[in-house]
């Protein structure tokens, strides 16, 4: 009686950097394509009326593939993900020396008004109407807002080296994030009304200046980046 040698238990070699890069790029492309196909279907028929199976069929993939990339159906719409959650915190982290958190957020918001950007809430009319008409999407967007505010509070805590028991970063983040929620809500309403581009930008810029000015007495000098901090 003969026996065959046992199969090798050696692990598979790790993929080369170029191979990993190709895989990552393909994953990003697949994610973007799924979100794009789904959003078009949602805009055409309504979020609640489109199933995962229909999205998979339109994208020529399996239902499992859609679910693997997007465990929550709502995130097929809000696919920007981390860039939105981190938008306010990143602005604070990247503020210039001598600049406060409020001044950085105001500057960055006004600078992005000419384009769709995670900071300003601008989008297409179809997307604005889609979210407005879906209770589930509005609820998911509120969750994203809460997570973005929490990330901002963490960035302010780090920037000011606040003690764990200090409520100032949380209170400040709540006020600054509220300004952005009002600005986003106003932007979406104007977009749903098909407001011309020039008028849209002008009204949002005016509202932003007013809203940040309201907070200026309390937060204008908060979390100023030291002039010698080049990190």
What does this structure look like?
It is a single chain. It is globular and about 55 Å long. The protein has two domains: 17-76, Arc Repressor Mutant, subunit A (Orthogonal Bundle), CATH 1.10.10; 82-219, Tetracycline Repressor, domain 2. It is mainly α. It has ten helices and no strands.
Q: How far is the N terminus from the C terminus?
A: 71 Å
Number of strands: 0
The second-level CATH architecture of the largest domain is Orthogonal Bundle
Q: Topology as H/E string? A: HHHHHHHHHH
Supply the number of helical segments. 10
Share of residues in strands: under 5%
> What is the third-level CATH name, the topology of the largest domain?
Tetracycline Repressor, domain 2
Number of domains: 2
CATH class of the largest domain: Mainly Alpha
The mean pLDDT is: 91
Main sheet characteristics: none
Globally, the shape reads globular
Structural class by SSE content: mainly alpha
Domain HTH tetR-type: 28-88
Pfam families: TetR_N
DNA-binding region: 51-70
Biased composition (Low complexity): 1-11
